[in-house]
Structure formats: structure tokens, C-alpha cells
Amino acid sequence: MKNLQESLEGLNQHYLELLKNLNRVLDVNIEMLYKQKLDSALYGECVVVEDVINAFEVKLKEDSIISIARFQPAAGNLRLLIMLINSARLLERMGDLLKANFKIIKDIEKSSPQVSKYLKETLYPMVLKIKTIYETYISAFINSDEKALYLLLTQDEEIDEMAEKNMTTLIDLMKASPDNVEGGTYLVLLNKKYERFSDHVMHLAVDLVYILKGENLRKLELLEEKKIKK
């Protein structure tokens, strides 16, 4: 029978594999934005990768629950196990979000090829930045680097600004011609989805700060909002 430390090490490895598989789906999103079209072979690969992500999510949840029941861990390790359960669930949803983007890219290619160039010109730079943020989170998890997490959290506003700038560009595109409205709507939807993915990465980072430092940043943010309202 494994002891608690061995169980935690195994769970951390499973979580890291989940992160790496999700990173692959993100890479495929980036490649399709650059090519401005759906790649059927890459899409097929992501269908397989999604199954792997789902399997890791289930195993992480089950093994974490078993570890809690078997070892009755102290506060720090208990927080870690709960984080692994919640974060694995969120990563699974992030994988679903990225996979859904492929259909939108296909719809743009099929119904509005005249706006396909905006996949590369407008969305691609933002998603490259999001990938950097996501990989910073992975590195911070591996190295227990809270300083990298704090730096990462400051980049949230940068993504918001890029997404807002994209929205302005896409609205102008739709205003330019009625023929651009359908494709522009798809592009707006993609822009929102990638911004949401970035928000999820920030949630992962906040939870990891809590594990490493014992600081609940969400609670602090809520308290600060209450002060402002008063």
C-alpha cells in the first residue's frame, strides 16, 4: 500500500500529463489559426487526446478521493488534493472548449472564406500569448514557483486588452459589409472562447498560489470589492 507522499507524487505526475495533453490541443488550435483552416488529421489527433484528458480527469478525481479517505491528510495536503480534483475538472472543460473551436474554424472556412485571414491576423497573436501564459503555469506547477504565478496574474489585463482590440476589429469588419456578418460572428465567438480559456488559466494559477502560499486570492479580491462598495 502506498503512503501519502507516494500517492501525492503519483497524482502530481498524472496532473502534469493532463496539463501536457491540454497543451497539445492548444498547439493544434494555434496551428489551425495560422493555416486559417481546419486540418482533419490534427482534428483526429485531438479527438484521441481529448479521450486521454477525460481519462486522466476521472483517475485524478478518484485517486484523490481515495487518498483523502485513506490517509486523512493534514490541512496542506488536503488543500492540494482538493485543488487537484477541482483543477482537473476545469482542465477537462478547457479541453472541451478548445475542441469546440475546431467546428467554428470549419464553419468560417466553409461559409465565410473571405474573413478567414482574420484567424491569423487577429486571433493568432492573442492565442500565442495565451499559450505563453499557460506554459508559465505548467512551469510554476513543476517548480513550485509562486513568483512566476504572481507575474502570470499580472498578464490577465493584457489578454483582456487584446481581446477588446480584436472585438473592435471584428465589429468594424462586420460593419464594412453584410457578407462579413456571419463569419464575423464566428470570429467574435472564437475571440470570446480564447479569452475564457485564458481566464481559466488564471483560476488555475490562483488555486496554485493558495496551495504554495496559503493565500486565498479569490477571498482577498472579494474582501477588497466589499471595501470599495462601502
Automatic annotation (TrEMBL):
InterPro entries: PhoU, PhoU-like_sf, PhoU_dom. Residues 31-99, 128-205 form the PhoU domain. SUPFAM superfamilies: PhoU-like. One of its GO terms (biological process) is intracellular phosphate ion homeostasis. Pfam families: PhoU. This is PhoU domain-containing protein. It comes from Fusobacterium ulcerans 12-1B.
